[in-house]
Structure formats: structure tokens, C-alpha cells
Design a protein that fits this description.
The chain has 20 helices and 16 strands. By secondary structure, the protein is an alpha/beta fold. Strand 13 and strand 14 (411-414) form a beta hairpin. Helix 7 (134-142) crosses helix 10 (167-187) and helix 18 (351-361) runs parallel beside helix 19. The chain is elongated, with a radius of gyration of 26 Å. This is Putative motility accessory factor. The chain crosses the membrane at residues 67-87. Pfam families: MptE-like (PF01973). It comes from Campylobacter subantarcticus LMG 24374.
Length: 474
């Protein structure tokens, strides 16, 4: 094979590889007296470098002086690629990520310089930033080796050519990478105290977990039972949707957040599933209600690290025919306990993430979100008026931040945690190729990847017949 073919075949990014195979334009290469003195003239007649060799030596001297021991480096712009060949001679540099927006530049250099060894060993990672989204960036940042050195992140611009031509794109990419880094760190947990509390609760909850049905059994018994799942959260807009939800409750699977459970129960709306994942005893109090026979056939699904009070309250509901099951996420400690029969799935960071993930695994073709405001309403309320802990529970907890409103109708106020939850939910939606996701909140923040439609319109379109949920016995 030619140098070009070897290089293209070694590229790890599938989308970039396919784009390179379709390139039909090669830029002009200008070769100086020295073998390393290589310039490129792009399709517009612009040179990438003023003095290629001089700029190469200047950058190498800088990196050998200040960044000699950095294992991971980030660059915007591939240029003639020689810089990365040289930097990878340093055994301390394990991975170099290069974002190159012009595939013709890569193609041109791939014809004359062999990078196949560095590409095959994943030491040189070439990425077209036009192919990126938040999910793919987070996946990159979650790579075990890269994650350990995210604190050293900075995005180096290859040369002035990229700075002048792609300044806005560079700023946008840098912001996206910083967001992805923040999410990756949060997803691993940022409090050792919380982590240890989770381990303690997990150990305390093991006897109850193994006495109830497993995650795999749930999937086997409940998969494909219903086309539509309605996920109910406790944003301030929930109240206005309750009457319609009650009308259609027997025509869809209702996935309910723990905080919405007492609200729905008091409105005589029975959920099929109620979710909880918090470690605090404060959250357990959502289950400290005696709704009697109303709880019959509701399945309470809780994460294995919930406070033992949650399990204590759920045990009482079994008297009336309610039931619960305990699932785990695949954290290192929990996986090493090897209770594999009870299954694992990534539950995200909120009960809405947990519900959305399970709705996907249960093969619901349509997933409908209501009460998923992730923002304050016009009078600053964070929750519905009948929320157990008051409608202003989080009104003054965090600094308010502007974000795009539902339907792109101006801006609404949110906070950093809700934005994090929103981003995670958007990632889940982007990777869910099976379901169509409708945001019927009719308020709050815009959630990218959803179809924004009124709840009534979606119910009339999707929920035409009643279905009976198969009972789930342990």
C-alpha cells in the first residue's frame, strides 16, 4: 500500500477516515532546502507558515523547556505534521490530540509523510472538530489515561494561520472541551465523603438487593410491553400537566421521579415505576407516606447506594402489594463485589437520567418528558407548588445563569447543577437511536435533541389505546 493508504487506514476516527477517502483536492506543497522545511498553500492561495523550519524549532524549544513531562497534549491544527513527529520522540508524551478542520491539509501531508506508526499506536489522535459533539468529547475525556491528566489541559494553536482563520471555532471548541472535562470529573464523583457513604449504604442494602429480582429479570419481563414512556419530573411546570397525565395514565408507562411520587399519588395518578438514587435520608422522606392500596403494583426502582431509610419505607409498601428492586451502577467497588447477576447500568446523575436510561433499555419507541424544566419559572420557583419541600426549595441555593428557553422563546434562569443534568440528558438522547424523545414540559430550558410539542398534542398522537402492564413479582 502507498503511504497515503497506510495513513488513512491507521486513523482511529471513523468519520475522519471516511472523509479522507473522499478527498479529491490536494493542496500545494512547497519544499525548502531542508527536509523539514515543508510549507503548504491552501485552496485560497494562503501559506500555512511564514518560515516553517524556524517556527518548528521555536515550538519544539518551548515544549522541551516547559512541557517536557506532559503526558497528554492538545493542539488545534495539523499543519505539516512534523511537529507531532518530533514531539512523539519524547517518551513522556503518550498522547497528542490534534483537531484539524480542513481534511485537505491532512490528505496533502498524508501523501508524503508516514504517520501510520503513531496513528496505529494511538499516540497521535487526529480529529475533525466538525464531527464532534459533547458526547464524543466526554468519551475522549473519560479515557482512563487522559482522565488522569485533565488538569494539565490547554489547547495550543499550531500556528498563526489557524489563529487568524479559525479563531471563533477555536474558542467554541475550547469551551466545549472544558465543559466535557468538567462533566467527566463530576461523573467520577467529586466528594470522597459521598463515595464512602455510598459504599456504606451499598453494603447495608446487599441483603435486600439479593432478596429481590434483578435488573436482568426486569428487562426479560418488561421489555417491549409499551411503546410510550412518560417520564415525570418535578419542575415548576408539572402542575399544569397533571390533569392530562391522569386522563392518559393507562395508555403509557409512567416513569416517576421520587420527588414526584407523592404529588402523583395525591392526584390519584399511579406510576408504573418510581425511581430514587440519592444517598441522603432527606430524599428517603419522599417514600414516608402511607398511600395504602394505591401502591399496589407500583415498582420502586432504587440505586444500591440509597439511604437505608428508603428501603425501610419501601418494605412497608409491600404489605399493600407494592414492590421494589435494587440496582447498581458499574462503579469499581461495586463491580468488584461481583454480584453480577443483579446487573449494572449507568444511571447518570439524576432520577430523570436513571428513568430515561431504563426506558431506553425497555425498548420504548417514544419517550415523553414532562416537568423537566431544569430552570426556574417566571416568579423564581424551582419546583411545583405542591412539592413536598416547598416550591422555592432551590430558589436561592445556587447562582442563577441564563440559558435558552423551551421553544427558543428567549432566555430562562437556571443554575450550574441543572445545566450539568441537562447536558447529561442531551448526551443520553443523542446516543439513543431507538427512541424518539419528546419534550412536553412546555416551559423551562430547551433540551437539545428533543421534539418540543404540547403534551396534549403528543398524547392524542401516540396514546390511542389502553395497555395492561405485566405484573412484576419477586
Amino acid at each position: 500500500m502507498s503511504i497515503l493508504e497506510n495513513n488513512i487506514n491507521a486513523v482511529f476516527d471513523y468519520n475522519l477516515k471516511e472523509q479522507l477517502k473522499k478527498v479529491n483536492q490536494t493542496y500545494q506543497i512547497v519544499q525548502g532546502d531542508d527536509n523539514l522545511d515543508i510549507n503548504i498553500i491552501d485552496g485560497g492561495g494562503y501559506r500555512l507558515y511564514d518560515k516553517p523550519l524556524e517556527e518548528l524549532n521555536k515550538t519544539l524549544n518551548l515544549y522541551n523547556d516547559k512541557y517536557l513531562l506532559y503526558p497528554v497534549l492538545f493542539f488545534y491544527g495539523f499543519g505539516n505534521g512534523i511537529l507531532y513527529k518530533a514531539l512523539l520522540q519524547n517518551p513522556n508524551h503518550k498522547i497528542i490530540l490534534v483537531f484539524e478542520p480542513d481534511v485537505n491539509i491532512i490528505y496533502t501531508i498524508f501523501k508524503v509523510i508516514d504517520f501510520s506508526k503513531e496513528l496505529k499506536e494511538n499516540k497521535l489522535l487526529l480529529i475533525n472538530p466538525k464531527n464532534l459533539n459533547q458526547y464524543s468529547l466526554k468519551t475522549l475525556c473519560s479515557n482512563n489515561y487522559m482522565f488522569n491528566f485533565l488538569r494539565t489541559y490547554f489547547l495550543e494553536i499550531h500556528c498563526d494561520y489557524y489563529d487568524s482563520k479559525y479563531q471563533e471555532e477555536i474558542l467554541k471548541l475550547n469551551s466545549l472541551i472544558q465543559d466535557a472535562i468538567r462533566e467527566s470529573i463530576f461523573s467520577h464523583g467529586n466528594s470522597p465523603v459521598d463515595y464512602l457513604q455510598g459504599i456504606k449504604h451499598f453494603i447495608q442494602n446487599i441483603p435486600k438487593m439479593i432478596a429481590h429480582s434483578s435488573y436482568k429479570e426486569l428487562l426479560n419481563k418488561r421489555k417491549n410491553l409499551s411503546d410510550t414512556a412518560i417520564i415525570v419530573s418535578t419542575g415548576p411546570s408539572l402542575t399544569k400537566q397533571l390533569s392530562l397525565l391522569k386522563q392518559y395514565q393507562n395508555k403509557a408507562s409512567i416513569f416517576c421521579a421520587d420527588s414526584a411520587y407523592p404529588i402523583l399519588a395525591k392526584a390519584n395518578i399511579k406510576s408504573d415505576y418510581v425511581f430514587s438514587l440519592e444517598r441522603t435520608d432527606f430524599t428517603s422522606e419522599f417514600f414516608n407516606h402511607d398511600f395504602g392500596e394505591f401502591d399496589k403494583d407500583i415498582l420502586f426502582i432504587v440505586k444500591s447506594v440509597v439511604h437505608p431509610n428508603t428501603i425501610k419505607y419501601l418494605e412497608k409498601k409491600k404489605f399493600y402489594g407494592g414492590n421494589y428492586t435494587i440496582f447498581s451502577n458499574p462503579s469499581n467497588f461495586i463491580v468488584n463485589v461481583k454480584l453480577n447477576h443483579f446487573g449494572y447500568f449507568g444511571m447518570g446523575h439524576s432520577v430523570a437520567h436513571m428513568a430515561y436510561t431504563l426506558a431506553t433499555y425497555l425498548k420504548h419507541k417514544n419517550i415523553v418528558l414532562i416537568g423537566q424544566d431544569l430552570a426556574y419559572n417566571d416568579i423564581g420557583e424551582s419546583h411545583p407548588k405542591d412539592y413536598q419541600n416547598s416550591s422555592t426549595f432551590e430558589t436561592d441555593t445556587y447562582e442563577h445563569i441564563d440559558t435558552i428557553a423551551y421553544g427558543a422563546k428567549g432566555m430562562v434562569k437556571t443554575h450550574c447543577i441543572w445545566l450539568w443534568f441537562k447536558s447529561t440528558l442531551e448526551n443520553l438522547i443523542a446516543t439513543n437511536k431507538f427512541s424518539i424523545t419528546y419534550n412536553c414540559t412546555e416551559g423551562g430550558a430547551r433540551i437539545n435533541g428533543t421534539i418540543e410539542e404540547p403534551f396534549k398534542q403528543v398524547c392524542e398522537k401516540l396514546l390511542k389505546k389502553r395497555f395492561e402492564q405485566t405484573l412484576y413479582k419477586t
